[in-house]
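Support reply, case 0932

Customer input (verbatim):
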Amino acid sequence: MILVTTDSIPGREIARVIGLVRGSTVRGAPATEDIHAWFENVVGGEIPEYTKLLAQCREQALDRLVAEARSKDADAVVALRFMSCEIANGAAEILAYGTAVKLGA
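Our regenerated output:
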């Protein structure tokens, strides 16, 4: 599956637009990691627990987007974007979305 943030794929023709595909996940940080992250935040710098958690969330959202695109027989997803929002205190959604397309020969 080709995933690009651009509206086209260089050297490839988009034969048909299938439509919107998306994948999301909602996660909260475990209490023990949240407390450790709070201490990290007090002294400043990167919070590795959150960095790891968000990377896992992005990958899961991408996996779900690809699964939806494959179920629609897409060859690629163009205009891929990520969005995030806080759902509740300590819980956030990561959304990956884009346009599923069929490529020409």
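We compared this against your earlier run and they match. Two observations from our side: The two ends are 15 Å apart (CA to CA). The first strand starts at residue 2 and ends at 3. Please reopen the case if you see a mismatch on your end.
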